[in-house]
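Continuing from the previous page...

OK, I double-checked the sequence for Helical backbone metal receptor against my notes and this is the correct one:
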Amino acid sequence: MTTFTDDLGADVVLPEPPRRVVSLVPALTEAVEHTMPGLVVGATDYCTHPPELDVPRVGGSKYPTADAAAQLHPDLVLANAEENRPQDVQALREAGIAVWVMEAPATVPAALASLRALLTGPFGMHIAGAATPEEPVPAWLAEAERLWTSEPPPVRARAVVPVWRKPWVVLGRDTFGGDVLRRLGVDHVHADADDRYPRPKLDELRLRFTDGDADLLVLPDEPWEFTDDDGPDAFPGVPYVLVSGRYLTWYGPSLVDAHRTLSAVLP
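Thanks. Re-ran it with the corrected sequence; updated structure tokens here:
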């Protein structure tokens, strides 16, 4: 038996390295399956990457079916403190299933540190092609750390970043997506909000541009699928960019491509 400690301080006891994993977090599904193909045996409906992943689905991230996950006989279930309900985690643990809960990261370095703890801990013996022989770190993780942990560049734009419409919801304080933008030179104007995901009225958002607080609208394609025809129409004349929601909010192998792609599309 080996005991690991997850991000919330809970003991995760495993008799051996996990070989059957159910992931309730899309970003962790991609990270584990990309690094160690074949370990993920169950995932949520929203686990869209890797695209070739063909495993049973256990419901949505917010409301997975604990029974469906348990019926897959996993050695380990991966969850997230923000995306998954505590009662679902507790139900799985009461069924005798080990659950690793990742804290919702407020910054890119925090996410990378959490991924490093997970992948070099419970999964350490599975990882092949490590960046260095001394530590079982996946090459993509080492590259993401190199790209994202340097000093952020000077701010060159101030943005409003909606993630939902009807009602409008924007990135607020202590969000991973907000830190991604900050590390690419784009500040977001709700970074000091009381809430992580404020719900300002549309008139309030428009005032940010007319008052000169913001000069850019950043529109991801998830969780709301903003397009050229859905989103910019609410902000006539405001400069905007459409970005991949996965590149903005997922932590995992996509961070490597995200740095190059987002740098190219942001002004």
